[in-house]
Amino acid sequence: MSGTQFSQVNDEQQQQTHGWAAYDSSGVLSPFEFSRRANGENDITIKILYTGICHSDLHFVKNDFGITTYPVVPGHEIVGEVASIGPNVTKFKVGDKAGVGCWIGSCRSCENCTQDLENYCPRAVMTYNANGFQPDLPITYGGYSDKIVIDEHFAIVIPSNMPLEGTAPLLCAGITVYSPIMYYGLNRPNMHVGIVGLGGLGHVAVKFAKALGLKVAVISTSPNKREEAVARLGADAFLLSRDPQEMLAAKGTMDGIIDTVSGDHPIGPLVDLLKVNGKLICLGAPKTNPELPVFSLLMGRKQIGGSGAGGMKETQEMIEFAAKHKITADVEVIPMDYVNEAMDRLAKGDIKYRFVIDIGNTFTH
What we know:
The chain is an alpha/beta fold. It folds into 2 domains: 11-171 and 331-358, Quinone Oxidoreductase, Chain A, domain 1, CATH 3.90.180; 174-306, 3-Layer(aba) Sandwich (Rossmann fold). 25% of the residues lie in helices and 25% in strands. It contains 12 helices and 17 strands. The longest helix has 14 residues, at 312-325. The two termini are 31 Å apart.
């Protein structure tokens, strides 16, 4: 394999690993034994303590994208303790807390990689099911397991004041909302920003936006989320997107909108909420492409953009910002043997706002 994403190691020293995997498109997860590579010169081995359940995990176990390689071990919101390090490792020592997000490798030499945008590398290696996108890559297994081996470059240093269970989802949900807020310049105090959807991504987006000093409006189809958004999470306003009068009253008031919703939904009404030069940033991936409201874009010099996770430098920056401002995800911690029930509840939207698996108390290390 090209690039430097994996250290050279002796295959005879592979590490026996305990995990849970889905074996077919039923998506049912059950125990699975497999091997991790030995700890290489630039690697750290992390004893996994907590792993968040991302909605994409549900899609992958059920093969909704049509690219799942079974058995699949999901999980890319991983936190734990460094159990061993290679001789060239400088970023970690044994006992440190470390995290792993969506990517565990890249070519390290392309234009994107040299600009700290490993997440956009054409050869980026996903934490699990990497060969689903790139058939020439080896199978990768994720964080529904007791350990992971990773090049230190792709591991995140977790500050000591961060509670690990609430930190795990930040390795995906956190960076996915933080990156577009920063890149698209929606981070200046008192800017008016809308957050579409109050789920796993949306609730974290509200927390980051408020910590940055922004005026935040949550936009949702669910009227029962009004009190949650304003009274508990601290949003400045709530817009019921199904109420034409509320949407009309907010027309042309927002500098930017972070759209976290993956379900099919119209974007024209969201574009109408933007000021001149406003930006609508899409983070979700609807099954069908929405109709582009070209006239509204022309009349306001507005932009529609996208964003996917973040590179390693920005992810570390996000975690340090979260530590400074005491930002964590709202989680429900579950044992590993509850994971199938959790997946069923996730499919129904029955979670506030992220399931996190207690890996440390599941497996004997």
